[in-house]
Design goal:
globular; 558 residues; mainly alpha; two-stranded antiparallel ribbon; three-stranded antiparallel beta sheet
């Protein structure tokens, strides 16, 4: 006799496609990283902040091809790993004043611990990183190819192993000249597996370290800089140069403040910060600045939609795992539980008589009146106004399980963006293609604004009706579409069956902005010897930095 009920679950779903964590569940992040940021800073991804890695990895390829070795991947890996290991380990021994707590050393999780053991010598047969080709295989390879320093391997007539181009051989020669008189290069470099004294590694890294490219007397700096920002008018190099000019203009004007990613995002969107650091771009960098501003507009937009998705997933998985729930139950939940007084108290903004069934036009008017907008919403709505995207972003992050913030607060973020760009400002018209990136499939910002404008043709449409529309089209349908495209990887957090949704109880990471590449770009600019560190409070441009920000190019002498 059965004494208790057993809760049934459709086990075949779990067996056929085991659920995984996954990322970018609405497909918005890939547009920012693969399209917008790649337009602004080609090849410079978040994990390629050190330009000298490009010289070092190309140098290793050149050394490999200069030897009488088998031309295959396994031999290349055998040659690469011990030498890249010593470079990674050595970076932790660097005593140069320019090193300054340098981060994102490839393999540092293991080599950092190893360096603290203070051994007299280190054997090169050490498994320091999972990827067989370390940072070259993980991140820097594509950037080095964009610089034109290597030819990628492949089927004939391509080489069996990545091979240096004439330009790659030249930068390898310059790197080699820097280290050729070290004991490591003269006595240890040729041997794959060998014990190397610590003092030999320390002597080598004083000249080879990532931090040394920025020095004025670095013989490879000019050559590297040329390929990053000019390179025979290569379009990728020109795009990077424009972004470098903008970053240099910014750091030159913002003083007495360490420029972090957070400060950077405030400046590019509002031209000011909550601490009243004002920025006005020079005419020569203005278009690039506006592109970055449109990028950040998409970041606020994506954050709002992803936060709505996060709330829906949490609500649904707590409500019922694997058991279908009527979509109407979620709408009822919002209508009954949404307490705008809670929002008002926590955000310190009076919501007046607004309710979930108020007209959406009343919400837009409330935003305008609260911020005392008289005519031009985008020009007048600033970071220190009672309600703005930056303030709400922080409130939503701090209250990410709150209905008031993850639904109503994010709706206001979307409304603010709509009010700014429903009429495209004249200075953005020629650059609006940035906001069209992603199209309908990946929910471009342009698509959202135009779609909401159509909805508002109905003057009586209510707040809850707009919320339903956004959840259905931009959250529910979009997640199912993106998750379907990722099969056989199962990243579904819910599926829709008619008017019902089936939720799966899988933990989700908190939502936030996508990486802006700020750290990578600012570090690259600094390490190419164009300016002081962005993390310092006083900022100085070098002679080359001033030359570039003024729209000229250095004398290359290469």
């Amino acid at each position: 006799m059965v004494n208790s009920l057993i809760k049934a679950k459709p086990q075949w779903i779990s067996e056929a496609y085991k659920a995984i964590g996954g990322q970018d569940h609405l497909g918005l992040g890939s547009v920012s990283s693969d399209q917008i940021l790649e337009n602004l800073s080609p090849g410079l991804i978040a994990l390629t902040p050190h330009p000298r890695y490009c010289s070092f990895y190309t140098f290793l390829l050149d050394e490999f091809w200069n030897r009488n070795l088998n031309r295959n991947q396994s031999t290349w890996i055998k040659f690469f790993r011990p030498r890249a290991f010593i470079f990674s380990l050595g970076a932790h021994f660097c005593s140069n004043p320019e090193h300054n707590n340098l981060q994102k050393i490839m393999g540092s999780r293991t080599t950092g611990k190893l360096s603290r053991q203070n051994k007299e010598s280190y054997n090169t047969d050490f498994d320091y990183i999972k990827n067989k080709l370390g940072g070259y295989g993980l991140y820097y390879g594509p950037l080095i190819r964009k610089l034109g320093w290597v030819v990628p391997s492949g089927q004939p007539p391509l080489p069996p192993v990545d091979a240096p181009t004439p330009e790659g051989k030249r930068v390898s020669e310059l790197f080699r000249k820097t280290i050729e008189d070290t004991e490591y290069y003269k006595s240890y470099f040729d041997t794959d597996i060998i014990d190397i004294p610590r003092n030999v590694i320390e002597d080598y890294i004083k000249k080879a370290c990532l931090c040394q490219l920025q020095k004025k007397n670095s013989i490879e700096r000019n050559y590297s800089l040329y390929h990053f920002i000019e390179n025979h008018d290569d379009l990728n190099a020109i795009s990077r140069r424009k972004t470098f000019m903008f970053f240099l203009d910014l750091i030159n004007k913002i003083q007495n403040t360490a420029i972090t990613d957070d400060i950077f995002r405030q400046i590019i969107y509002f031209k000011t910060t909550i601490n009243s650091n004002e920025y006005e771009p020079d005419p020569g960098v203005r278009d690039n600045y506006y592109k970055w501003r449109l990028y950040q507009a998409r970041e606020y937009y994506g954050f709002a939609l992803n936060s709505m998705w996060f709330y829906l997933c949490n609500w649904g998985s707590k409500k019922s795992n694997f058991i279908p729930i009527e979509v109407e139950e979620f709408w009822t939940h919002i209508s009954k539980e949404l307490n705008l007084k809670n929002f008002s108290n926590l955000s310190n903004t009076p919501v007046s008589s607004l309710k979930h069934n108020s007209k959406f036009a009343d919400l837009l008017n409330w935003i305008k009146n609260l911020n005392s907008i008289s005519k031009n919403f985008d020009a007048e709505c600033n970071i220190n106004d009672p309600i703005n995207e930056y303030k709400l972003y922080n409130l939503v992050k701090s209250n990410n399980e709150s209905l008031e913030f993850t639904v109503f607060g994010t709706l206001i973020i979307l409304s603010l963006i709509y009010l700014r760009f429903e009429i495209i400002p004249p200075e953005l018209k020629d650059l609006w293609f940035i906001s069209k990136m992603g199209g309908r499939e990946r929910l471009s910002l342009d698509y959202f604004i135009k779609s909401l404008k159509k909805k508002l043709n109905n003057k009586d449409i209510t707040i809850i009706e707009v919320i339903k529309w956004i959840f259905l089209e931009f959250v529910i349908e979009q997640h199912i579409k993106i998750a379907s495209n990722k099969l056989p990887q199962n990243t579904f957090r819910f599926i829709k069956e008619g008017n019902k949704i089936v939720f799966f109880d899988i933990e989700n990471s908190d939502t936030d902005f996508n990486t802006s590449r700020f750290e990578a770009i600012s570090t690259t600019i600094h390490e190419l010897g164009l300016c002081s560190n962005f993390n310092e409070t006083q900022h100085n441009l070098t002679h080359d930095g001033l030359t570039i920000v003024n729209g000229d190019l250095p004398k290359w002498n290469i």
